Amino acid sequence: MDIKVLRNFVEIVDSGSLTAASKKLFIAQPALSNQLKALEKELDATLIERNSRHQKLTDAGKLFYSRAKSIIFQENAMYQEIGDARQGEVGCLKIAAIQSGEINLLQEIIPRFAKAFPRITYEFQEKETENTLEMLADGTVEIGVVSTPFPVSPDMDVMYISEEKLVCAYDPSVFSFPDPKGEIALSDLGDMPILMVYRYEEMFRALCQKEGFTPNVRARNKQLTINIKWAEAGLGIAIVPENSLSYSTKPLAFKTLRGDGLSTQRAIVTMKNGFHSKAVKNFLALCKENL
User: Are 200 and 240 within 8 A, CB to CB?
Assistant: First the structure.
């Protein structure tokens, strides 16, 4: 089976239709349709149920799509490995990082690495932890910077690099605490409206329950920057890592939360079964030495 057939099938699925895929692949739609029919005949299975309005993968199609992506990933890794052996330290680092995790990379590590390896190029994407782990698993990126809590699988190599306390960020003209300085306890939040990212919610609620109260979570979302903006608007008190306050465009007051478990840890994650170019290995070594 020709690898091009696998690539074309994946594109048909990803594009959502034969018409869209044919435009991207620069292949006439009838020819692409015939290729799909020949593939289904070879496999003796219908892969895509289609009509004039939509297409849907069959169970066999889902399995073939998954296997095809894996084969394509392995082929890409092979070419990358051969190219790396031929070109040495020339390459591209593909990195995805959470918002609070990108700061050290952009301000400290990447400038230092770029000076040592001036021919390396970069593809950098800002993603949430869940999306970053998905991109690592399918080979879209080679390096991910995420924040706990996140599910660690046996396929991952994890380098924990820093820990930071969670803080309460708020507009001091709207909210206040009895002690204007220092840390506060969870119980000091009382019935105050809380702004929360989903990833911290389970941990935060459990810790509040230990303290004997249920937090008043007013709003939840995936992005720390949205929580910061809501805090700036006076909608509530955002529970965020301290580094994320750099995204604020309006002065916010903040309090460090006192107690065990009220922190998050950043980590650099790579996949054990993925190809690690020399550039990736050099980058990880620099991170290990300096983070």
Answer: no
241-255 confidence digits (pLDDT tens):
887 887 788 889 989
User: Where do the domains of the chain lie, and which CATH numbers do they carry?
Assistant: 3-84 (1.10.10.10), 89-155+268-290 (3.40.190.10), 163-265 (3.40.190.10)
Query: What pLDDT is stored for residue 103 in this prediction?
Result: 62
pTM of the predicted structure, to 2 decimals: 0.62
Percent of residues, the chain, with pLDDT higher than 70? 94
| Beta partners for residue 168, in sequence order | 239, 255
pLDDT band for position 37 (cuts 50, 70, 90): very high
pLDDT beyond 70 at 100: no
For the chain, how many helices (H) and strands (E)?
10, 12
Q: What does the alpha-carbon distance between residue 7 and residue 151 come to, in Å, rounded to a whole number? A: 30
pLDDT, the chain, mean: 87
Q: How far apart are CA 151 and CA 166, in angstroms?
A: 20
DSSP string, 175-232: ---SSSSS-EEGGGGTT-EEEEEHHHHHHHHHHHHHTT---EEEEEES-HHHHHHHHH
R_g of the chain computed on alpha carbons: 24
Q: Whole-angstrom Cα distance, residue 168 to residue 24?
A: 48
Pairing between β-strand 143-147 and β-strand 92-97 as defined by DSSP bridges = parallel
Q: What b/e string do you get for 183-204 counting C-beta neighbours within 10 Å, with b at 16 or more?
A: ebebebbeeebbbbbebbeebb
Give the pLDDT confidence of 268-278 residue by residue, as tens digits. Answer: 999 988 778 88
The answer for residues whose C-beta is within 8 angstroms of residue 50's C-beta and 6 or more apart is: 18, 56
